[in-house]
Amino acid sequence: MNGKSRKLAALGIAALITIAAGSTANAAQCGNTAAGFPAWVESFKGEAARAGISQRTLDRAFRNVSYATKTISLDRNQKSFKLSFDQFMQKRGAATIISKGKRLKQQNAALFAAIESKYGVPAGPLIAIWGMESGFGAFMGNQHTVSAVATLAYDCRRSAYFTEQLYALLQLIQKGWVSPDFKGAAHGEIGQTQFLPANVARFGVDGDRNGSVNLGTAADALASTANFLRGHGWSRGAGYQPGQPNFAAIQGWNAASVYQQAIAKIGAEIDG
């Protein structure tokens, strides 16, 4: 797929998300226990088919779907965001991320220079996100992604938000960008910097120029992350610490203030 085609495909995904979430998402009734999940899946599949998802895609995507108990448990108990900043930095292994991040910046100098040239985002915050999200690609998750996202779409707590993510994921599967049996993080995050499906559709780019978008590779994940930050207002050359112009773009990455501060702090240490 060439660059123009990928852009059109992404636009198609975004359009379907908007149409489907706006017109059909409320029909399938949410629930807070596993009991209603199978019926919800069948109802949702009907809605998705009417919204333009092919029957083949639905059959493949939901073939091995199940209620993701671990996802719900983790969603209810995100304790790390309740830590102090110092506690959070220690729990996330900030010192290790900084040390390894400096080496990776040197080893991949050409890649980071190309990304900064195109998107205006320096290496530091990208490496901070990369290290905190997946340990630099060492662990990208082991949860069945369709099950995780479908469970959160069914769950009443954030049903509308994750219904949007589910439609995006189905479109990614239909386009061949993601396998139906793909495994990622507990909330459906994908790849080395852990993009939610709708963000793959909106900001995913072919960083290694091999003709496809695969956030399991470092080049695609880092370029896509830079594109995300630019899409959230990143200004070339401006600072990214709290109170500086680009901190708002970092805030777009994660809603937790300790996480935002950690990206800024770790990034600054790596950038020197």
TrEMBL record:
Top-level taxon: Bacteria
Record carries keyword Transferase: no
GO biological process: one example: peptidoglycan catabolic process
Signal peptide span: 1-27
CDD domains per UniProt: Slt35-like
UniProtKB keywords: Signal
UniProt GO molecular function: peptidoglycan lytic transglycosylase activity
Pfam hit, one: SLT_2
Domain spans labelled Transglycosylase SLT: 37-240
Record protein name field: Murein transglycosylase
